[in-house]
Amino acid sequence: MSAIFDRTTILGAARFFQNCVRNGDIDGALSSFHDDAVYVSQPGNFVKGKTEIRKALEFLCAMRPDLQAQRKRAV
């Protein structure tokens, strides 16, 4: 990954995650989460822990969507 992201900021962390997903980098995207994190793929649908988050990210990264970060609410 050639871009440098300041992951100590919310914007930098979001851009890093977006870049990983766009490029199909599952390990990079997964590095955005703590071991006991909860990943909300859509309202009411969530998984907990890196093992389950990896499964969700494998599906997401396979699509290589052009994600756009928008903060509508914090969880």
What's the short version?
It contains three helices and two strands. It has helices at residues 10-22, 26-30, 50-63, and strands at 38-42, 45-48.
Structure characterization notes:
This protein is α+β, with helices and mostly antiparallel strands. It has one domain (10-63): Nuclear Transport Factor 2, Chain: A. It contains three helices and two strands; from the N terminus they run ααββα. The chain has a two-stranded antiparallel sheet with strand order 1-2. It is globular. The termini are far apart.
Order of helices and strands: HHEEH
The chain-level mean pLDDT equals 87
Gross morphology = globular
Q: Decide which structural class fits the backbone.
A: alpha+beta
Strand fraction: 5-15%
Distance between the termini: 29 Å
- The number of distinct structural domains comes to 1
Stretches where pLDDT falls below 50 for ≥5 residues?
none
Strand order of the largest sheet: 1-2
Give a short account of the largest sheet: 2 strands, antiparallel
Could you say what the CATH topology is called?
Nuclear Transport Factor 2, Chain: A
Helix fraction bin: 40-55%
Give the C-alpha Rg: 12 Å
Count of extended strands:
2
CATH architecture: Roll
The CATH class is identified as Alpha Beta
Tell me the number of helical segments per DSSP (H or I, 4 or more residues long). 3
